[in-house]
Design goal:
There is one protein chain. The protein is an alpha+beta fold. It folds into 3 domains: 49 residues, Up-down Bundle (Monooxygenase), CATH 1.20.1280; 347 residues, Kelch-type beta propeller (Neuraminidase); 124 residues, no CATH class. The chain contains 8 helices and 30 strands. The strands form 8 sheets. The chain has a 5-stranded mixed sheet, with no helix packed on it. Strands 23-27-26-25-24 form a 5-stranded mixed sheet. A 4-stranded antiparallel sheet has the order 1-30-29-28. The radius of gyration is 33 Å and the shape is globular.
Length: 572
């Protein structure tokens, strides 16, 4: 008995210690295998899995998450892309199609093994789908279902316009084969892209999308997997506006949720709709939204993912909390009163008195030497429009007062600055004073431009001493960096949304880390086992792309990086 008591086995450990050990295993591989050891381990693993998922949900609700980046390995790997489609199936993230920065559309299929964190390309057989982006891919039983999509126009070898697709393909990971599903039912849905899809029981419900560029739809189509037929399902008269690029999730087997979308130019939607599948016809309900000021900006290009009773959207912080974009200050100018002086040195114009000709000012009033006038004439005209916009209020008023004394309708009488009427001096009175004032204005413009571009110091322009004291805005000292626009978690509470018909945005936690990616759009976000997986997209602020406010415009950064968003606290 004494000899036997010297040996201890793992089964002799307290269950609390076993739970801690089991919580360190991979949820995709080892943890599932540990269930098969014995009944005790099966019970413990079930409890550990439940606790880990509850811990993950709590970390999501408090935004206490850990970002783990995974860059694509060197060599043959998945290409940078955006507007692709993705879904989670059997411990892997599957990605299909998408676009890249060279306007190329893909039809390749990749698998990101979440157990090993490696990319694998299945060389599938069967009928491959066409190259496309903005398609939908969902899971039905043991198959991936791909529908719709759009492809870039191709200039070579012959120009072809953009194409929209209504193809339905299914991929079986076990047999590694694509199959094209045809339906003899009529009518069939039109070719469509930018739609959303969900699987409820044995049907796939498709909402919205675009049939032509920039035009949305609010139709609801249903594909029956058992009968292989399409049905345009009737809905209530009250329905969402036509849109594309929205997010769609299943609340339960009786309800679908639609978030945001885009209806075309200047039609960005932030509304939320619930589709009740228990009524006949299906009934739409617009959801009452609380705390809309905390809503995620630009819902149509940031896909949402459901985690428990919370919708998660990854986007930049709320606009009101963002630092204002750095742009060159511009004085208020009424363009209807801005007068661009002609190039003539002297304009006869209307006589103020019996014999008082009016003399017009040039942008650079100086001596009337013909060589210097001809060389500076082109430069004066080029700077004139910028100078008129950047003039401070006092200078602008002086310019208007001087300009009112001449007639712009006589520009054709005198063609150039070198033409001088006899009897007038070649050097105008107060020329140096006017030149000094205009040089100061140009220096202000240059310093403000340098301030925007992040150049330190003040230029040594020919403005004389004390010019910096007259600037409307002080120049920023030191290198100015563009504020980092990292993404954060925006959370929408949808608890009991099917009963109360209301949802609430939570105040986002804008604390970020060095691993948090920059603002990214047109990516994919799916839920794995106790973690979220983000892949691809364009690392660019959509507002900057639309308004063009960046001074140093950089090319769009299309990414093929993956980010795992998990719990910071993994212990039980």
């Amino acid at each position: 008995m004494a000899a036997e008591s010297q040996y201890l086995f793992i089964t002799d450990l307290p269950e609390e210690i076993l739970e801690i050990i089991l919580s360190k295993l991979s949820p995709y591989r080892d943890l599932k295998s540990a269930k098969l050891v014995c009944k005790q381990w099966h019970r413990l693993v079930t409890g550990v899995t439940q606790k880990l998922y509850e811990n993950f949900q709590q970390c999501i609700k408090t935004s206490n998450v850990l970002w783990t980046p995974f860059q694509a390995e060197a060599g043959p790997t998945i290409t940078e892309r955006y507007s692709h489609c993705a879904c989670y199936y059997d411990k892997s993230l599957y990605v299909f199609g998408g676009c890249t920065s060279t306007n190329t559309t893909f039809n390749d299929l990749w698998r990101f093994d979440l157990a090993t964190r490696q990319w694998i390309r299945p060389l599938a057989m069967g009928t491959y789908p066409s190259p496309k982006a903005c398609a939908s891919m969902v899971v039905y039983k043991d198959n991936l279902v791909l529908f719709g999509g759009w492809s870039h126009p191709t200039p070579y070898p012959l120009h072809q316009a953009a194409r929209f697709f209504s193809e339905l393909h299914m991929y079986n990971p076990v047999s590694n084969r694509w199959s094209h599903v045809t339906s003899l039912s009529r009518p069939l849905p039109k070719p469509i892209a930018g739609h959303s899809a969900s699987v409820v029981k044995d049907v796939m419900i498709v909402f919205g999308g675009s049939h032509v560029p920039g035009v949305g739809s609010n139709d609801v189509w249903v594909f029956d997997f058992i009968e292989s037929v399409w049905i345009k399902h009737p809905t209530s008269n009250l329905k969402p506006n036509p849109r594309y690029g929205q997010s769609q999730v299943t609340v339960n087997e009786n309800c679908l949720l639609i978030l945001g979308g885009c209806g075309g130019p200047n039609q960005i939607f932030n509304d939320i709709w619930l589709l009740d599948l228990n009524t006949a016809p299906w009934e739409w309900h617009e959801i009452s939204v609380k705390n809309p000021e905390s809503a995620a900006p630009q819902l149509w290009c940031h896909p949402a993912c459901k985690v428990g009773d919370v919708m998660v959207i990854l986007s930049k912080p709320v606009k009101s909390n963002q630092p204002a974009p750095v742009v060159a200050p511009r004085a208020p100018v009424q363009t209807s009163r801005v007068w661009v002086p002609p190039r003539g040195e002297v304009q006869p114009g209307p006589m103020r008195g019996p014999s008082s000709p009016t003399v017009a000012k040039r942008p650079f009033p100086d001596t009337d030497d013909s060589s210097s006038a001809e060389s500076s004439n082109e430069e004066s005209g080029r700077i004139q429009s910028q100078e008129m916009k950047m003039l401070p209020t006092g200078d602008e008023g002086d310019s208007r007062k001087d300009n009112d004394s001449s007639d712009s309708g006589t520009e054709s009488n005198y063609g150039g600055t070198a033409s001088v009427r006899p009897g007038f001096p070649s050097v105008r009175p107060n020329a140096m004073r006017n030149r000094q004032r205009q040089l100061e204005t140009l220096r202000k413009y240059e310093e403000r431009l340098r301030n925007v571009q992040g150049v330190s110091g003040v230029g040594n322009g020919a403005g004389g001493a004390g010019v910096a004291d007259n600037l409307a805005k002080p120049v920023q000292q030191g290198p100015a960096r563009e504020p980092r626009s990292a993404m954060c978690l925006h959370l929408l509470d949808i608890c009991d949304i099917d009963k109360k018909l209301e949802a609430s945005w939570s105040i986002p936690n804008e604390a970020t880390s060095c691993d948090t990616p920059e603002e990214t759009i047109f990516y994919t976000l799916v839920e794995g086992r106790g973690e979220l997986v983000l892949f691809g997209g364009i690392q660019r602020d959509i507002n900057s792309m639309q308004r063009g406010i960046d001074v140093n415009l950089k090319s769009h950064v299309v990414s093929n990086n993956s980010y795992i968003i998990g719990s910071r606290k993994q212990t039980l």
